[in-house]
Design a protein that fits this description.
It is a single chain. The protein is of the alpha/beta class and 335 residues long. It folds into two domains: 70-240, 2-Layer Sandwich (Nucleotidyltransferase, domain 5); 247-334. It has eleven helices and nine strands. The radius of gyration is 26 Å and the shape is elongated. It starts with 11 loop residues before the first strand and ends in a 10-residue tail after the last helix. The structure holds zinc ion.
């Protein structure tokens, strides 16, 4: 890839850990031995990846001290690439589905905040072509590498740079970091995905030791059907997000109801406009507290926005209650 390293500072930081803790070769626990850093230009922004690398320390193991990298790394970018897989997927789509020229693609990427030379666009197009041309059955280098490795840990990811457009499906081996199959599909029915996994399974010269993916139902179904009995691990983040979805929905609903009850802050502020007396100051202070509570979001799935708003409004209401007990009067929205 051309040396067009982005010089800007990363705006996104992601800490990635290997999901697998046991050596894929001997099954003994691997140690988190060291960390690597990588910077990748993605559609979301320049991303710093902090990668924890595990290694097996079993002297009798063929993979002794061989690094095992976080499975999710390959979803962000291919090994040694400075641009994200999402950028590669977008470049391919703009070229082949929308028939844009290289200068047009460059301009489109610039519009999305990615400054990139035309020559680099051409390189990314080459990477896209290579990706889709991978044929496990004919690739002697890849087959030799996998045979020596003895087994694979598969990851399946769907990259969709823009909603409503085709998805680039990529099946990788997490041990070598190699792409085993990539295909662009307009719609991903679960049978299509099972077909892709089946094609990889049939062409592999070695067994599949495990599968890693996110929690989308079609992927889960496809893995179950194409690779029955193979240990399957969900990506931790996606798993948590799926599990938290009902709570997230309930919390969002509760937040909506709470917001309704404190909607009329503006008329109260207006009522004391131009006044500088202590009572007006107090009212303005409470109004400010309510406003800031409304804009202070939690970060799902671990922090619930609705619960946070409830806590903050309850604290404000308690405070008003204490003021009221001292002889003040309660505004109509503070009940
Ligand atoms: Zn081992």
């Amino acid at each position: 890839m051309a040396r067009t390293a982005p010089r800007a500072e990363p705006t996104i930081t992601r800490d990635l850990y290997p999901r697998r803790v046991n050596c894929p070769h001997c099954g003994k626990a691997m140690r988190a031995d060291y960390a690597n850093r990588r910077t990748v230009a993605t559609l979301d922004g320049l991303t710093r990846l902090n990668l924890t690398i595990r290694r097996c320390h079993n002297d009798a193991c063929a993979a002794l001290r061989r690094p095992y990298r976080p499975e999710a790394e390959g979803r962000v970018a291919l090994p040694h690439h400075q641009f994200g897989l999402d950028v590669v997927a977008l470049v391919g789509r703009l070229r082949y589905a929308e028939h844009r020229s290289v200068p047009e693609i460059r301009a489109h990427l610039a519009g999305r905040g990615l400054s990139i030379a035309e020559r680099t666009v051409t390189n990314l197009l080459d990477r896209y072509d290579e990706l889709l041309a991978v044929a496990l059955t004919d690739d002697r280098r890849l087959r030799k590498l996998l045979a020596e490795q003895g087994r694979v840990v598969l990851a399946i990811d769907g990259l969709q740079p823009d909603v409503g457009h085709e998805v680039l499906w990529v099946i990788r081996d997490c041990i070598s970091g190699e792409v085993l199959l990539a295909k662009s599909l307009l719609s991903a029915r679960r049978a299509d995905l099972a077909g892709l996994l089946g094609a990889v399974r049939d062409a592999l010269p070695v067994p599949v030791a495990g599968v890693v993916s996110d929690g989308q139902h079609p992927i889960r179904w496809a893995v179950r059907h194409a690779l029955p009995g193979v240990p399957y691990q969900l990506c931790q983040f996606h798993y948590l997000r799926e599990a938290a979805r009902p709570i997230f929905e309930a919390d969002r609903h509760a937040k909506k109801l709470l917001k309704k009850r404190v909607r009329k802050v503006r008329p109260i502020e207006r009522a004391v406009e131009g006044r500088a007396d202590p009572a007006a100051e107090v009212v303005r202070g409470y109004c400010g507290a309510v406003r800031s509570a409304l804009t202070d979001d939690g970060r799902p799935p671990l922090a619930a926005s609705g619960l946070k708003l409830h806590d903050r409004l309850a604290a404000i209401s308690d405070s008003i209650g204490r003021a009221e007990a001292k002889g003040g009067c309660r505004p109509s929205w503070g009940s």
